[in-house]
């Protein structure tokens, strides 16, 4: 497609919008201003992400920006004309980039930054060096007379070496070569949660079985490790748990043998809590069935018990629809 000149685009805009002569100068000025702003935004966008490291100083960086700085940032070509200091007639030397790979040059500030420390270093004194993290981190360095001496000194600081290790780990994680610590912790947490879920599933299923068969849960004793019953009557619930272990429930067996915590989830209070949860689930299902049915009836009857306390029973009848 042929690109129109600025004058042609202005003429077409005037014709299409039927602009009068009185507003012509104002319109042209507005168009020129908009085009100037658009070019400025476009050029600055390219500059921020491709050309100058100074735009990334003292700001919170995204992972994409960190990766860009570490792997694909602008490096001056060999024929780049570095500014010359008027006093000492010195300038940045291109070979320093090969000697010190952590260097990133800023055209705007005519100075350099350490790409590792800029991303990962904190604003504290370097351990053992009594050096504030200003040079190479929050401020550019351009003392070319002592450049190599200070470069070598910076490479030996603890915080620089720590930041370099952090950068290597970051790239390994971002490139999928290594799992991050957070993901490792999340994976282990998920694995442990799945194991705990299996343990509780065996215990809850045993309580549900006792409830459906109208079996009492507790016996004469209801404490201690389930597997150590010593031929005492400790109730149907604990007996069925031992039966599950004998039948091959290795997760439950490991829970009773190797779990160092006292939380066996078999105490009377835990049993009551599980029974109460089952009761709420059953009630919710009954209510949902009634709400989904077309017809239902409510029957209520009141009577007095042996202690002369009035008791009311409630009966719900509904049609189950397919």
UniProtKB/TrEMBL annotation:
Q: Which SMART domains match?
A: ZnF_TTF
Q: Which InterPro entries match?
A: DUF4371, Znf_TTF
**Domain TTF-type: start-end pairs:** 88-177
Q: Which Pfam families match?
A: DUF4371
Protein name in UniProt: TTF-type domain-containing protein
The lineage is:
Eukaryota, Metazoa, Ecdysozoa, Arthropoda, Hexapoda
């Amino acid at each position: 497609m042929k690109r129109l000149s600025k004058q042609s685009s202005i003429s077409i805009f005037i014709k299409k919008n039927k602009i009068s002569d009185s507003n012509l100068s104002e319109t042209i000025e507005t168009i020129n201003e908009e085009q100037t702003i658009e070019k400025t935004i476009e050029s600055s966008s390219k500059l921020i992400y491709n050309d100058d490291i100074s735009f990334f100083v003292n700001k919170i960086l995204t992972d994409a920006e960190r990766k860009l700085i570490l792997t694909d940032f602008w490096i001056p070509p060999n024929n780049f004309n570095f500014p010359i200091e008027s006093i000492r007639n010195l300038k940045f030397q291109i070979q320093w980039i090969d000697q010190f790979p952590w260097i990133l040059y800023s055209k705007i500030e005519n100075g350099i930054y350490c790409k590792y420390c800029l991303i990962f270093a904190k604003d504290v004194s370097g351990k053992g060096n009594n050096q504030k993290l200003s040079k190479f981190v929050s401020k550019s360095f351009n003392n070319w007379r002592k450049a190599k001496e200070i470069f070598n000194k910076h490479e030996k600081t603890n915080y620089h070496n720590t930041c370099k290790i952090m950068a290597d780990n970051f790239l390994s994680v971002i490139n999928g070569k290594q799992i991050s610590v957070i993901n490792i912790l999340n994976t282990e947490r998920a694995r442990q949660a799945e194991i705990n879920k299996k343990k509780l599933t065996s215990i809850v299923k045993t309580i549900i079985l006792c409830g459906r068969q109208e079996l009492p849960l507790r016996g004469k004793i209801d404490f201690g490790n389930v597997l150590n019953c010593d031929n005492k009557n400790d109730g149907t619930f604990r007996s069925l748990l031992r039966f599950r272990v004998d039948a091959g429930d290795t997760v439950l067996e490991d829970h009773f043998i190797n779990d160092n915590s006292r939380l066996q989830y078999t105490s009377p209070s835990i049993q009551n809590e599980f029974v109460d949860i089952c009761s709420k689930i059953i009630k919710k299902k009954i209510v949902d069935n009634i709400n989904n049915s077309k017809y239902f009836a409510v029957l209520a009857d009141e009577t007095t018990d042996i202690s002369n306390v009035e008791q009311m029973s409630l009966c719900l009848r509904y049609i189950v629809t397919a």
